[in-house]
Every structure is written in structure tokens, then in C-alpha cells.
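Cast an eye over this sequence plus C-alpha cells and walk me through the fold:

***
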Amino acid sequence: MYSSTVSKRLLGIADAAWPEAAPIEQLALALGFEAVVSTQVEGLSRQKDLGVIVTKMQPGSSLQSMIESMRVFGDDVQFVIRADASDLQTITTLDRIPGVHVVGDADFTEETWKPIFEAQLRAASSEYGISRPEPTVPRSADYVFVDPKSQHLLALIERLAVTRAAVLLQGATGSGKEVLARTLHELSDRSAKSFVALNCAAMPEHLVEDMLFGHEKGAFTGATRELAGIFEQARGGTVFLDEIGEMPIQLQAKLLRVLQEKEVVRLGGRDPIALDFRLVAATNKDLKAGIADKTFREDLYYRISAFKLQVPALVERLGDVVPLANLLAAKHGCASPEFTDAALRQLYSYHWPGNVRELDNVIQRAVVFADYGRINAEHIFFDEPMPRSEADLSQVMTGPSFETTRMPMSTPEVPMIARPRDLQSAVRASEYDVIMDAIRSTRTREEAAKKLGISPRTLRYKMAKLRESSSGLSHCA
């Protein structure tokens, strides 16, 4: 849900029996707006121009039914929900939804509800003078949810967050699977506990086994102290197993037993340790093909995939490209980047084989050479320049989030980066690559200069010369 203000019949009260219903209604009338009172939320669904609804979680009602009833009203309606203060899961889950305020029954007094409603009522100053702010872009770390496909994915994650189901994220490398796993964790009632991640393809088999299950002191040579495995470390939180399709087949049987029994025996240990964790796994491989090839256990597959989510590649959610580009530019030092139409045309037309990771590289390069945050087409350098994809850009250019970046639909071909035609150009291109590699792999210009074996002043001089000789490329100050 997104916060907004609407006018006329502004306030809906979904329980006429509350002692507070009358003074809330009087406050609305005193400020010149109507208040609509019903016995339940569903009774308000036919009303138009509702801005705020106050309701209560009835005893015995489910969190899922409350969320479903709120969806009927769309994104323009805010909710103030009274809930049992002892139901921490419900309060925590609802309070994370944008546009929803949750107040405990015991705390629902004039001091708590009056400021909320007064601010909303005063925001709508007249029927024709309403300010409708831009929707807040929901985001998590390097994943944003603007494109319709991403918003659908976020809705599924919100639903899964209130359950304990094991989730399998399937998608290409660099598409943001770990970020989505963290989002799921943050929206769940386990958010106050640990999120522990392990890449099953990043280490040798014996190290993966040690990280998964832990060991006792003296379990093997070099085991000078005990080590808790990641399932123990989670302690009521979430375990994220990335690239689970790369897990050695010998370890899959042990993992299956841990998932089934919710207990683990450390290497070199005897006593089982009870566990409490939620599993989220991710893969960029076809696990069904792995089952056919006998490289992945079928019983483990069904244990980890109670719910499967397909994470779309970046080229499939082009509506996220510009919000992500802005987010990444800010992360790399350009707080307020300005992308020209020509730059946007390139970003939207590229096929993004490296997904968000490749976009991050592209934006890093653009930030280095942009002129005070203004990023043009000549600042966009792709890892593998290729002709534009056949994606329907009209799907990207709709909606309020892209009013300022709409482009003609007759998008020209993406200009290719020119190949060096003489020795001097080749030297410049090679020098550019070396400098960019140093800048990307260090945190400051001083560190980059040290890595290159030159002084910071010399680095600034070389970058200035590159700008002068490369069609006006300039640095984002």
C-alpha cells in the first residue's frame, strides 16, 4: 500500500460500537469532512474517496483475511488497525505494510489516534486542492519493486512472510535472489533474529559440511574449539542456502535429515541439538534436470520447494532499471543523478545478461565520467555491447514513476562502443580499462592511485586527459 490523501468522504470507521468511534467522527466533522461508519470493513467497500479506515482485528480472525480485506481498497487508502498487544506476529507483520498504522488495544487513546487522523484530515484542504504525492517506491537493498512483475513478486513475498513454508528462489545469477531472501526475512516474525547465508558453491565440500553442521572441539585436526553450524547460528531466524544445486550429493542426505528432524549433530558430536529456523534456498540451475542426472536428490527437492518463486531477470522487469540505476548511483557517490533521454534509451534497450550486477558495473563507470551527476549516452559502457533487445518499451514508459523519463517509442539502435582504429586510441582504451578496474576494486581514489602505482594527482591528470580525448567524458564531482 502507498500513502496518499483523498478528499470529501475521508474517514471510514469499521466498528460503530467502539467508544472512540463517536469522538473520531466528531473530529472529522469539525474539520469539514464526512465520516462513514460501518459495523465491519467490508461494509465500506462501496464507498468512494475513502482516505483513512480505522478497524479492529476481531478475536479469531486471521491475519490473512485482514490483509485480503485491505487489498479491496487499493493503494490510496490508509489503515489504522487496533490489535491485541500480545499478538506480536500480527502487529509486526501489519506494521511493516506501507500505509498501515497498528495500535495496541490498551494504547488506543485520544493521544494516539488524534494526531494520526488530524494529520490526514488537514492534508486534504479542499475537494479540488488535493495534493497526491508520488507513490513510495518499495525497495530492499539493491532490489526495487516498481515494474509490475516485481510488484507481483513483492505481493507473493508478503504473503509468504506470515507463513513458515520453505521457499525456493529460482533465477539467473545476479538477479537479486539473496536480496529477496532478506526481504522475506525482514517481513516475517523472525526479523529480530539472525539471517545467516551460505553459498554452497563457494567452498570445498568439507568446509561446506563444517559450516552447515558445525563441529566439536577435537573433531578433526585443527579443530581447537567448537563451532556452531549455520542452523544453530540462525536461532529462530532464517537460513539462506544460495546455489543449493551445487551442493555435493553426499551432503544432501545429511541436509535432508536436518530439515526433517529439525535437529543437528555436530561433526565429532553425539547429542542432537534442537533447531528453530526457516529455510530459504536459491538456485540458478534446473533442479529437475539435476534429479534426472542423479546430481540432486528428489526427496530434498520436495523438502526445500514447498513454495517456488521465479525471480525475473532484469530484462524482464525493465520498469526497475531506472529506480535501480538511481539507487546504485547514490551508492557510488552521485546522490542526485540525472539520466538524459539518450542514456535512458541505452539502459532500456540493453539485454542485461549480467542482470543487476552488470547494471551496477555500468553505473559505476557512468558515475566516474559523468558531469556533476548528468549521465549521457557516452557515459554508458556495457560489458558486452550488443544490439538492442526486442523488449516492448511501451510497458516501461507507463505509470507515474516514469513521467519524467518517457521517451518516443521509435527507439533507435543502441550505439556500439567504437573500436580503436589507431595505436593512440588503443592505448587510451587500454589505459581506461586499467584505471576503471582499479577504481572498481578500491574504495577511494587514493587507494586506486596506490594500486596503479601512481600518485592521486597523476590519477586525476590521467582521468582529465581521458575526458578530453573521449568525446567529452567527465567525472561526477
